[in-house]
Every structure is written in C-alpha cells, then in structure tokens.
Amino acid sequence: MPIPQIERAASEDAEGQRLDKFIRKWLPGVPLSHLYKLFRTRRIRVNAARGYPETLLKSGDLVVVRGDEADLLKPPPDPKSVKGGRTLRPSAIADAPLKVLFEDNVLLAIDKPSGLAVHPGSGIECATLVDLVRGYLGPRATRNDFTASPAHRLDRDTSGVILVAKTRPCMVALTEMFTHGHPAKSYLALAKGTCSKPRGVIDLPLAEHEQSGRSKALHGTNMQTAITRYRTLAAGSIASLLECQIETGRTHQIRRHLVAMGHPVAGDRRHGDFGFNRELKSRFGLKRMFLHARRISLKHPLTGEPLTIAAPLPDELKAVLTAMGIAFDETSPGASRPASS
After folding, report:
1. In this structure, are 320 and 195 located in the same domain?
2. Is 254 helix (H, G, I), strand (E, B) or coil?
3. Residues 321 and 266 in one domain
4. Alpha-carbon distance 286 to 288, whole Å?
5. Annotated active-site positions, please?
6. Residue 28 and residue 51 in one domain
C-alpha cells in the first residue's frame, strides 16, 4: 500500500527560500513541533532526496510531505485572540517595546530579552520575537512574498543580539554565512567555580539534539563537531565571568560544553547545577540564566562592509555581578576584574 503524501512544486517566488519556511506557509495548520518531527523522521523530501529545514529551494523543486492529506492541509485554528495562528496570553516580556540595535533596508538587529521565545512552537502561549518584529515592521514586514524572519536562533532564556532578515536575498546571504560559521559570535556567561586555565578551547562533539529515536536505534547517536573558545574575564569567590565564542552552532552548545568542563552556567535550569542556582538566587538575586549574546561581527549580507553589533549586558545581570563583588567594564570585556574589597 503506497504511503500517503502531498506534493508541491516551488515557484519562482520561492527561489532561495528555506524549506521549513516554504512548508510553514504551505501547511499553516501543521504545528511547528510536528513540522520539525516530519523533518527528523525523513518524511519531507525535495526532488526525492531528504529535506532539511535549512535546505534552500530552487524554482521547480518538487517538495513532498508524507502524511495524511486531511491532517496536513487542515486550516490553522481561529481563536478569538490570535496572532500568527496562536492564542496569545499577556506577557510583560513580550509586551515590552522592541529594542532595536541596528536597522537598514534589508537587515534588523534586536536585543532579545531573556524569557522571550524566538519562534512559535509547542507550549508557547505568549507573543514571540517573530510576532514582535512583524508587528514593529507593520506593512514593511512582507516584501516580494518574503516575510521578515530571524536568521538564527537564541535559546529562550538567553538574551542578546539576534539578526532578522527583511528580504529574501538578505536571508539567503545570512543563511550561507551561518552555515559556514563566518559570523563571530561572542557571549558572556557566569559559570560555577574557577576554570583551571584562564582561557582555552573546548573541542567536544555533541549529540545531535533533534535526532529521532528510530535513527538512534538504527545508526547510534549522531555526534556533531562542536568548538567553543573561552576566556575568564573575572573570577569571584564561587563563580567566574567568561567570554565565550562559538565556532559551531549546536543546540545549547555553550551550556553543554561548560557542564562538561565542570563549570555549568549559572541559572541554567536544564543542564546546570540546581543547588548552585538556588544559592545564587537567594544570595545574589539571580532569577534567570546568566548567558548573554553580547556581540556579533560579520560582513553586511549585501554590501560586504564589516559590521559589528553589540547588546549591553542587561541591568539585572549587572546587579548580580555587583552583588557578587565582580566589576564589569561594559566598554572593554578584557578590563573586567574582581571588585576591590
């Protein structure tokens, strides 16, 4: 019995579009979590080959999605209060003004607050960064059948710089850059304890985050190359402020690498040290994960000019450093030092 499936050919307007965005527009009733499950379980094909979310389409490509036609083509929900096909509840974070760090005709850089999800997904009931960006841009959000979208991801609890493409050519250029690791991304992390070396390289493969259980059973765990460079900016009595640069973009890479070193990120509720997190919250007022995407440097996706965009360390994280006796010089990470007693 043939496997049920639906198919659609990519139009000229879809040239250069990411496959996941093409399918989200084609099948708006499919929840985002289920869409990425279809990718993981190889039920999305392009010209008979396995499709990946980041696959860039060409005009005429045949996209096939395996599954029940009625389920795949069902319309999105239409609740009373809806934005982007989802019921949204009020949120102080999501309702705050968007912090724009840079903007021109094709590119937008946002300072994302901790607690704000980048994309809609399962369990996301508040507005996301995608919603806020499109609300900010208004009629300018969609041009030539392309809607402004983030070009990369940040964990929900991580704050800092995130880039948004306003045009398809910009998205194609940024996707190519991120795929090959060209942008230099710098993060600030407060880690438990003191590193044995003031700077170093963590070259430790990480298990693929989205690998399906069936794939693991058939092929074993898929390990992916992951490289993080770190240096200690300041050390307190129980924690150190680190600057981390990632050469690969694996899910939770910095968090997983620092745990492997024995220095989990402060406030990390998934990979971290829960007793340490409780201590930092009660003694120093840390109520979130201390991981901040501070700076990104790249060539402008269209002009090629060097571009560096930075987001200041949030006030709530500065307050934690002050409470811990760690001085941080916002203008010069290398000048950070333990505060004098």
Report:
1. yes
2. helix
3. yes
4. 6
5. 155
6. yes
